[in-house]
Amino acid sequence: MAEDVPQQYNIIRFSQSPLKDGNGHQSHCEKVVYFKGYDKVAFVEQGSKSLKMCTPDMQPYLEIKDFTQTPLCAEYIDKYSYVAVSCSDLTLSFFDADNGLKLARRIETKTAQLVLCWSEVAQVLFSADHEGRILAWDLTLVKSGMNKVYESGGGDPWRDFVKAVRRRDFSLSCFITRLEELLAPELRQALRQKDPKAAIRGLAARQLSDAFALPLLSADFCAQLLAAARGAREEAEKRQQVTPGLLLSARWYLNKIDGSFTDLFDRLLTDVLRIVDEALFAESHPIAYHQAYCINYEEGRDVSLKAHTDDSDLTVNVFLGHPGFSGSELMLLEPSDRDVACGTPRWKDPTYEGRSVAFRHETVGTAVLHPGDRWHAVEPLTSGSRWNLIIMAMRNDKEWKRTFYEETASHLAEKASWLAAGS
């Protein structure tokens, strides 16, 4: 049996339930979560400043009104009998299920926590914010403040002994259960169509004959990638480590930051990018091998990139942030034979005969896709900062391509060691 054939199937069959929600609602329910271990259903109505609960048979149970703004998410922690609730007023509250759901602890957070997830394995409450940070809360420290009395809306300031710490070994897959959650809504919708390739062609904006702009990744996922790359850069600079690129001074390989990125981008390539590639380029061999890394243009760092081609059959260049920078346009070049007769096209020279198209990265998650042999450059950045995800892919038409990217990364690592030894 082939290795890629499923060995086991898990099937859940759904049928319509006679159970009806007879509770009156002030507005539609924005969020609904089942508290496993507490056997309650919690929900938040649009515009409401309370978290309502009912039993699984839709009988009203209790309403927590101790919020000044709308609750964002909730999680039940069976080990401590806590109901944890994140609120848009930048608080994280813990209610004691063994004591009538009275407020036991409230902590001010630096950012609004959009996701809460209790890990039985790690015995840690994970949360994540809109900036892409994944945080970990030690519940033993949270519980240590329970002897204090809190008034409605009150709370503790953010302190080191209770603050969340970034977990670099934490897998993103805990939050991402389906690949489509990573994708831009427009692409997600296109892939659901009867003819997804035609829908993708209709969604893509042609820049040159073989270069397209396409909404590819969700803003939330881009924020996670950006946070991971920036964190890796900060850590490398603290340790005075060198992470060289080829034409730029540095690149940050995602699989070196977090091993879970390897499987994630494998799935992205096989399940999404292959379909996009077939829709836009229609080559005879599919893309099969890839590397993914982040680059940055910023004042005091790399600010431009000379005309070049890539070591790829397909390049996917995704804007991660930040909007508001000046300059740094991606120049897509279509030089004439005369322009490249002596090598690199001098596209700014008055004698340049070819075509050039300036693409400005403005929408987070939008990708520019082009063959690797398409000439391109980056204009000087004049202010701000621009981060991009680069995915380079090879087709499976030649055996040497199978190990090309691993060998490239190994050579760059050797270069980094050599530079570090000489510094």
TrEMBL record:
The keyword Metal-binding is annotated on this UniProt entry: yes
This protein's name: Fe2OG dioxygenase domain-containing protein
The keyword Disulfide bond is assigned to this record: no
SUPFAM superfamilies for this protein: WD40 repeat-like
Keywords of the record: Dioxygenase, Iron, Metal-binding, Oxidoreductase, Vitamin C
Domain Fe2OG dioxygenase: 286-398
A molecular function (GO) term: L-ascorbic acid binding
Cofactor: L-ascorbate
